[in-house]
């Protein structure tokens, strides 16, 4: 069972947890829900009918630009006229690390909290362990559905559900189409990591400060963005994480070592990826690296859909195409990729848990279509609705005509998640340890074999220390 802490003792744990928070991404413009038939009452729940006016506070890292909050919350007001959902913006930049720190401090205070949004699985699991989120199983049973059937992401932790998933953001590869054309390269529809490395080498151009790299990897860093150390694990149907479903280490999987070798080869031998030291010392931003044409390919989550056509802040001056997450071998299943979601929870200390749950259920179903910023994790969404969302998203960018829509749609439709492994409550400790060992390797202080060995030993110690 998940250990639940009392609120009076949460301050120390929250402050410590803030230092371990990983960095995630924000989401992906405005479409009314259509063609949902009788699903609305089931998803959103009936009007409260009590006449009582409630104010619910929603804590989120999501910005207005990325989440269309004003329109979304106004739409909910039409569903529940007696309920006002107040937005508590934790980061104006959508910085999830900053948001997690502020959320932890708020949770340890006397502030009213009703609805919480977590940006990644590890952060979700850690905050469940701190007792921040209320189990939703009774509400779900009353509504008569199963999370693993109604959603594409299973959010169970130790047999209980503490959050429902919002968006369904598969990872993909953004490509500078102009650079591809210049190098005589086609937009990949089905490719391997060897192909990816070959493309990166052919797209690399110039020297010194003006050098253009084939690709940019935005991680790992500070125990976050760990997707970049699981490249050859994440496209497998099973065991796509550092830990297996039974809680044991998965670092003896050859694909972990091969991921390290790929990163080392591309940076040190091919010199086709932006150096890790540059990313850390210069605090590089992945948007800048791609849109300023410093890197020709960017492996990233599809929360970027709202930006790939260019925005006021980050204009687009070239043509963009999209390719699927690379495979390990040509014969492997196509489309398997990491998937990110928002974990939307009811705060354990909320005094209006049922009303908060009704909003969470509505937001993760009908609300996702109203918001129109992301492909929803709700499995009841039709393919026509998905295409409509994509059209709406691109129409909200500055230069949608510069985006190869065909490659984007094909990649999104083909994408699918590996079997979900519920994160351990100590997952951020695992991430931090592996990140530190990787840094030793990429900075030239130890070889690949030593990195694998040390990572295995440290992770096994963490697992043993947390056995119940």
From TrEMBL:
Family matches, as Pfam families: SBP_bac_1
The keyword DNA repair appears for this protein: no
Keywords attached to this entry: Signal
InterPro entries: Bact_solute-bd_prot1 (IPR050490), SBP (IPR006059)
N-terminal signal peptide: 1-26
PANTHER family: ARABINOSE-BINDING PROTEIN-RELATED, DIACETYLCHITOBIOSE BINDING PROTEIN DASA
Entry protein name: Sugar ABC transporter substrate-binding protein
